[in-house]
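Appendix C: a fully annotated inverse folding record. The material below is reproduced so that readers can follow the format used throughout the book. The structure is listed first as tokens, followed by the designed sequence.
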């Protein structure tokens, strides 16, 4: 899947507080691995996530090899929006 880096960061910033920890726990991942998925560059405590950045508009185009974290993040945002309305 391809997504702009800007959109990936927008999704990360739309997550409710505690969502990174929640995703990490649900998927049995290190929290830093989840942060790295959304563009963090601290590889010491987390796995390097399989995505590739091509230069371009919107911060570039990110090719995501695995969409599991992204899909869970989108579900959490949808749940959060539904509980507000």
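Designed amino acids, in order:
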């Amino acid at each position: 899947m391809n997504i702009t880096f800007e959109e990936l960061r927008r999704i990360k910033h739309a997550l409710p507080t505690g969502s990174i920890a929640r995703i990490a726990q649900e998927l049995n991942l290190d929290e830093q691995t989840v942060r790295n998925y959304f563009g963090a560059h601290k590889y010491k405590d987390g796995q390097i996530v399989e995505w590739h950045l091509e230069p371009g508009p919107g911060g570039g185009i990110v090719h995501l090899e695995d969409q599991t974290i992204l899909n869970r993040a989108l579900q959490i945002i949808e749940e959060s929006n539904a509980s507000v309305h």
